[in-house]
Amino acid sequence: MPRTALLVSTALCAALLSPAAVSQAVAAADPAPTPVDRFEGEVPFAGQPAEGIFTWGGDTDDPPQLALTARPDAPEGEHVLSGTYDISGYGGFTHDYAATEPGHDWSAHQGIRFWWDGQNTGKSTNFEIKDGGANGEASELWTTSFADDFTGWKQIEIPFTNFVYRTDYQPVGGIDHVLGLTQMWGYAVTLPAGVKSQFAMDDVELYGKADQSLRASVTTDAAVYPVKEGGTATVRVTVATTGAVPLDDPVTVAYAPDGGTATSGKDYTPVSGTLTFPAGTASGATQTVKVRTLKDKSAENAETIPLKLTVTGAKAPAENPQVVVDAHGLPYLDSKLPIKKRVADLVKRMSLEEKAGQMTQAERGGVGTGADVATYDLGSLLSGGGSTPTPNTAAAWAQMIDSFQLRAQATRFQIPLIYGVDAVHGHNNLAGATIMPHNIGIGATRDPQLAERTGAVTASEVRATGVPWDFAPCLCVTRDERWGRSYESFGEDPALVQSMETMIQGLQGAANGKQLKDDDKVLATAKHFVGDGGTAYGSSTTGTYTIDQGVTTVTRQQLEAIHLAPYQTAVDRGIGTVMPSYSSLDIVGDGLGPVKMHARADMINGVLKKRMGFDGFVISDWNAIDQLPGDYASHVSTSVNAGVDMMMVPYSYKDFSSTLVAEVKAGHVTEKRIDDAVSRILTQKFKLGLFEKPYADTSNAAKIGSTSHRAVARQAAAESQVLLKNANNVLPLKKSQKVYVAGSNADDLGNQTGGWTITWQGASGTNTTGTTILQGMKNAGGNVTYSKDASASTSGYDVGVVVVGETPYAEGIGDVGNGNDLTLTPADQAAVDKVCAAMKCAVLIVSGRPQLIGDRLPKIDAVVASWLPGTEGDGVADVLYGKRSFTGQLPVTWPKSEAQLPINVGDTSYDPQFPYGWGLTTPTKAPTGGTATLKALEAAAGKTRSAATGKALVTKARLIVQAKVGQNVTAAVSKPFADADHLLLTGKYAAAVKKLEEAYRAA
C-alpha cells in the first residue's frame, strides 16, 4: 500500500476520536519521521566529500548497478532506488552525508526504517549505520541484517538497539565502541553474495521516540579485574547519557556473583546489592562495588568471580565484569627457575583446548573488545597492515594492547598474549613513527652496522606501544623484479641478504635472547621460508597475481645456495620466529612437484628445525593454510604436522582451534607434536618477560619519531641513494644554483614511503609525519622552484631535478602484469623530457624496483636510484647537495628491458643496463690508477685478514673501474663487475679485485 494511503487512514482514525483523546494522543505521540532518503533525486550518485550514494565491491564485477526508477507502486513519491547484482565476493551501496558538513543527530528517534521490494531469495542483507568519526568513510560501523524471505514491498523497521558493533571490519579501527547517534554519517547496504538478483528500496527515514534505555548506558571501567589473593577488587560502575544530559529517570544496577570458578565464602566474601542513580544524576557519575578476596595457603590457578549486573532504566554493559584472583604459588610463575622448567611445568597443567588456543593467532578486528581472548584461550593477536586503534597514537596502541592483555588474565593460567605487527621498515602502522627505507634501500647501503641501528630504532618504537613481536625482517632473495614484494628484499644476492641480517640483532639484541625482555627489543621473524623471492612469472594462482605466491622451481643445489643460506644465518643469530611462504616449492628431481611451503614437513621440520637447529616457533602467514589442498581439517593437520606451531587465522580462529582439538582426538596430530609447538611458543613468551610484565612499558614512547631516531633514518636514506650516472659532475648540486624541481614523487610523502605505510598498500599523499624530497632540498638551503608536471617556464635555471617513479603497492597487488609495469608514467616521462631538454638535469627514481629508462638515458645527465627512502627526505637532500657522498650500490641488477627478466648476478648471460653492485660516488677526490694499481690492490687484499681493510681495498678498485667504464657498460664489463661484489660479500677480497681487473680490461 502506498504510504499516502497509510497517512489518510491515520488521519481518518484521528478524526473519530474525542478532542480529549486526540490531545492525549498528540502528547504521547512519537516525533514526526525524519527523512533520510526519498530517492526523488535529492541525493545524487556521488561520493566523499560530497553527499551522495555510491557503490563498492570486492572486484570490478561486484558493485551493483543502481538507478532511480519511476514506479507507480512506489511506497513514497514517484521514484525508488532500484538495482541489479551478481556478487561473487562482496558488494553493496552507501549513502554518505557530506563530510564538509556536521554529522546528523539521530538520537531523538527509536530507529531507522525503509521499504524493501522483496524477491524471496532467502538470503540475508546486511544494513549498517555510520556513527562518529571524521566522516562516513572514517566512522564506526554498526550492523544488523534482515532476511529477504518475502515478495513485494515491506517496511523494514530496525530499532537502534538492534545494531551491534561490527568486529570483522572497521575502516578506522573503532572510535569508542558506543553508538552515540549524535554524529551520524549515513548508512550502507551489503547485498548477498552468490545469488543473481535485483532489489528496490524507498523512503529511508528515522522513526519513533528514543527512550532513556537507549540514551543512557551503564559501563564498567574494565571487563576484567585481576587481584592478588587476599586483595580487594574495586569495580567502578558509571552511567552516561547521549549528549551528557542528566538522567530523566532513575537507573538502578543490581549486582551479584554469577558462577565462576571461585567459591563464595572460601575464596571471597559474599557480595551483592543495588546501586541507584537518581533522576537528575549527571552523566558520567560513578559508584563502586568492592569484592574482597580471601587468602589461603595453597598454590592455585587463577579463579574467576563474574558479577552479573541487572540494569533498569539504561542500557546494560555489553558484558558483565569479572574479578580474577591471580594464580599463585605455581612453579611456572617463579621467575628464578630456568625457562625450560617453567615451560615444562605449565605445559603439563594445560588442557588440550588450552594448548590449541596457544597455537591460535587472531586479528584484533576479529575479536572485537576481546572477550574471545579468554573464551578461546588465545595465544596471540596481531594487527594486519592498517589495522590500528583510533586515534592512531602510541598511547592508543598501548591502551588497546593492554586491554587485550587484561583479557588473558581471566584464563586459568593467565598466559599473556604475544601481540605481533608487520613493522617492516619502522613501526609503519603507527602515524608519526620513524619510517626507514624499505629493505631494498637498506641493501643498497651495504652498511651492516646501519642496518642493525635501523632495527634497533624500529624495536624501540614498536615495544614502546606494547607490541613485543615484529614480523620482520624479510630474508627473501629477490630474483625477478616483476615481483610485487621485491622491495621487501635486501637484494638478489644471498650474500648481501646475509650481510644485512645484523638487523636481527637490532630488533632482538643478543643471539641468546637475554635482551628480549628489555623495553627496547622485540621478537623478530625471518620470512618467508623458503624461496618466496624465486617464484616464476606466471606461476601464481592467487587471484590476479602474476608472480607473488607462485611456484619456485630449483635444483637442490640452487635451493641451498640461494634461498636457504640466509635462514642458517638467521638461526645462528638467534631469530625467535620464522614464517613460511605462501609460495610453493618444486625441487627438481624429488618427485613431489610443487608443494605449498606450509605443507612441507621436509623443509620446516627437517631442514629448519632439525638440521639448522631452529628452536623458536614457526608462525603461519595470513590465512595461508586455506591455500592447502583438501578440506579444512586436512589444512589444519597437514600444516601442524609440517611444523607450523602457531596459525595466523585472523577471523577463523574459532574454527581452527576446535578443528585442531578434533584432529588430535582423531589421531591425525599427536599430543607430542602439540606439546612441542606450545613449548616453543611459551619459551619465547618467557624470554620476552611477558609473564612478569604483560602490559605496555611506554617509557620509550617519547622517543617515537624523535630527532635521534629520525637521524638514523636520515642516514639510511642518504646511504641508500645509488648514483647510476653523473655526466659532467651534475651532482652534487650547489646551493648557489637555481634548481627546477619537477616530477610526481618530489613532494609526495606517501609515494616516498611506499607500501606497508599506515595501511597495507600504502597511499599517495601525506599520511604520516615526515619530510618530502622537495622539502629536504629546501631545508638544505637550495634555491628551488617546484612544478610537479613541469608546466611552469623552464627558462633561467641552472639545473633540473626530476623526481619520478612508482606509487605505493604491496605484495601481489604490485606484481607486474597485475595493473603494474616497470615504465614511468606518461606524466613522468613528459616531465623528464621537458626538463632535460631545457637544462642539465638529474633524474631521481623513487621506486621499489628498477624502472626501464634506457631510451631516455642519453638525454639525462645524472640518474639516481632513490628506492623508497622513508620519511626522511632530508637524507636524500644530504647527498644531492654534497653534505654526504653518494656511496650506495645496486642491490639488484638494473635491466635494459623487461624481456631480460629474471636477470641476476652469476647468470651465464648477463648484459644489464647497470650491473649488480654498480654505484658511483661523489668524494672530494676520486681514486686514480690503472692496471698496476689494481694489481697492487689485489696483492694487498690477498694478505689482509681485516674485513674493513678488505672492503676498502675492493671499493677503491671498484671506483677505479667505474671511472674508466663511464657509461660504456657492456656485457663484458658487467659480468665480472657484478661477480666482484658477490665475492666481496663472501670475504674473498683478492678474488673480488681480480674480477674487477677483468672488468677494467674489458672497459
Automatic annotation (TrEMBL):
Q: Does the keyword Calcium apply?
A: yes
Q: Which reaction does it catalyse?
A: Hydrolysis of terminal, non-reducing beta-D-glucosyl residues with release of beta-D-glucose
Q: Where is the signal peptide?
A: 1-27
What keywords would UniProt list here? Calcium, Glycosidase, Hydrolase, Repeat, Signal
In alphabetical order, the GO MF annotations are: hydrolase activity
Q: What is its EC number?
A: 3.2.1.21
The record places domain Calx-beta at 205-310
- Enzyme class name: hydrolase
Q: Which InterPro entries match?
A: CalX-like_sf, Calx_beta, CBM11, Cellulose_Degrad_GH3, Galactose-bd-like_sf, GH, Glyco_hydro_3_AS, Glyco_hydro_3_C
| Keyword Cytoplasm applies | no
Give the transmembrane region(s): none
Q: Which family does it belong to?
A: Belongs to the glycosyl hydrolase 3 family.
Q: What is the name listed in the Swiss-Prot or TrEMBL entry for this protein? A: beta-glucosidase
